[in-house]
Amino acid sequence: MPRVKRGVTHVKRRKNILKKTKGYKWGRKTKIKQAQEAVLHAGKHAFRDRRNKKRVNRRLWQTKLNAALRQLDWKYSAFIDAMNKNNCELDRKVLSQLAEKNPKAFKKLVESFK
To answer: Tens digits of per-residue pLDDT, 30-60?
Structure first.
């Protein structure tokens, strides 16, 4: 069986890892073994935090919505309950944006649930 030289593949793999570690500190950006570890852990954290971002944003929308509703003498939980009973299809993101950007329209919407 003929000998296979993998120099090109090996160099390409190392180069790609070092591209991903651009901006890292110390040996993590230049030394292959440390760079591989850094990329592995960074990928793990990125995967986890893409899911956490959704949680954080939903909590933010709820907080914004609650603040806007308190000014109109409503509680968040009562508003969500009234919304569900009236089969309103608007989600928390849209409602919080409406409350922030267009308070008059939001006030009309809230009054329609009374």
So the answer is: 999 999 999 999 999 999 999 999 999 999 9
Here the tokens at position 104 are 């008059």
Residues 29, 83: Cα–Cα separation, whole Å: 52
Q: Which H or E run contains 102? A: none
Q: What is the pLDDT of residue 5?
A: 85
Domains of the chain by start residue, with CATH:
11-112 (1.10.1900.20)
Among 93, 89, 100, 83, CA closest to 58: 93
Distances (CA, A) of 95 to 48, 53, 70, 104: 27, 19, 14, 12
